[in-house]
User: Fold this.
Amino acid sequence: MPKTKSAEKKGKGSTKGAPSRLVVVSNRVPDVKDGRVQAGGLAVALEDALQNEGGLWFGWSGKTSTGRPAEPKETDVGPVTYVTMDLSRKDYNEYYNGFANRTLWPLFHYRLDLTSFRRTFFSRYQAVNELFAEKLSWRLKENDRIWVHDYHLLPLGECLRRRGCKQTMGIFLHTPFPAMEVMTYMPAHRAVMKALAAYDLIGFQTDNDMRAFTDYIEYEVGGKVSKSGKVEVFDRTFQVGVFPIGINPAVFERPIAPKELAWARKLRQQHGDKAWMIGVDRLDYSKGIPERFHAFERMLERYPGYRSQVSLFQITPPSRGEVAEYKEIRHELETSAGHINGRFADIDWVPINYINKSYTRDRLTLFFRSSRVGLVTPLRDGMNLVAKEFVAAQNASDPGVLVLSRFAGAARELKSALIVNPYDTDEVAEAMARGLEMPLDERLNRREAMMKVIHENDLDNWRDKYLAALADAGRKA
Ligand code: F6P
Assistant:
């Protein structure tokens, strides 16, 4: 059973000569239930590193409190301590829903039309990062390595440094990083970039993202960037690097329980011999789902032979539902799926099965494996792990085809997918049809090439490379 206790300051902190722990900080922390960590991708990847020399994972509990939030809660699982804190309703509205998801998220995904610049959002974002630093700093030991994740916590390193923390600190950005010109639309751009300079290592998903960052450093603020990724700016020297995140492919290749297989078989029977195409995305405007629906509609217009023969399954768990733009996209998708189904459906065929719920990993694997075409067509995406998961889940002797947006980080690695511009409706419609018709030889070759990359750069590799670079950056600092 986990040991749950409220935080006690006594006895923590001073630990000269102690082994180097890994301290992970992310907005969301994996759930711990009955002494077990509910493992998502990132949690699995970091588990080894956390277990080896002990570790700490700090972040938001996912809960809001009406009054002043209580002290963070600590839960020990083996040598790892999970420390989570509630946010006040105001913090949640202005930090999470506000600056994180109404300013940084749309801006970093090139959606200036959806970006809100409000000073109250920015000051609350700073305040929550300051609060995290206050609650974390005294828990740190001298030799800790701190690995911060994502756009919610860009200023955390600076807040910790202000409190005298000298530990090696790195951040990894899971999202894209916007081009300099886009970044400068944000009134607080300089403050945010200066704060980032407090880290020893900033990791990006792709060269493109890193180039966008270094362009800003060189051309907007006159800093220096060397070929090896050393950056000198704002009176600091730090490293930048590219670390494309991977998956653990074995999870998608392992045998599946007979009960789940029976579920998939029954589902397949209900749909006769119709071909499936599949999209799996969090409900987010960056994922290009309306554009995907239009492309599917275009395919049915241009190639009438597919009518009654091909169904699109779009699995879209809702997210960030309190943000107005997410309510709008939800409404737009319901309208669009309804329109297309109204136009083309027949008594025995629903063109788009639009589903607002999530499925277990095994069921998703079976959905992927039963689909002839996987549609991963975001308008902009840091990496998009669904692309890698779809490929890994395929039947090795009869694989489906991945249609992949050139604007997903994954397109830089999965070059054997059918790469499309999601804004080009006709091109996506053609790629859908090409995927449905692709001969077995070509499907096998394309999957083999992609699996090679997926295996070479799996999740463990990603973690090891980042942590090695962080240790190196720490030594240089
Ligand atoms: O892509 C950025 C990211 O923070 C992911 O790491 C995460 O899966 C997703 O967004 C979750 O968003 P939220 O915590 O807002 O539901």
Remarks:
- The radius of gyration is 23 Å.
- The first helix runs from residue 41 to 53.
- The chain has two domains: 5-246+460-476, 250-456.
- The chain has 16 helices and 19 strands.
